[in-house]
Design a protein that fits this description.
There is one protein chain. By secondary structure, the chain is mostly beta strands. The chain has one domain (9-102). Helices cover 0% and strands 63% of the residues. It has no helices and nine strands. The chain has strands at 9-23, 26-39, 44-45, 48-55, 58-63, 67-68, 75-79, 82-86, 94-102. The strands form two sheets. The protein has a seven-stranded antiparallel β-sheet, with no helix packed on it. A two-stranded antiparallel ribbon has the order 3-6. It is globular and about 40 Å long.
Amino acid sequence: MLRPGELKWLAIFSQDEKVQGKYGSENKLVEKLRIRCKFEQTATSGRIVDAQEITENKYVIKFNKPQPVVIEEDFVVEVNNALLSVTGVLGKPTEIHVYCKALK
């Protein structure tokens, strides 16, 4: 059960293709993922404290340090040693292109 202010994020991950992309200040090989998700509460940003797989390729992700972010503004979260940059629309299921780079 989520506490008030926490974000429940249901995401379906599907691996598409590996692409060369601009990531931070370097060109790195990144993995392009497609996510369909629905933001059920106010969008927040912060380090992920739990990412639990509830069905195949479907995750419930919880944040700590919830902070408001502008809708459709990119924000960065950390999950399973990967860095995700996500853009979404609050309250609507949407397909999101995510560029994922594993941290070494």
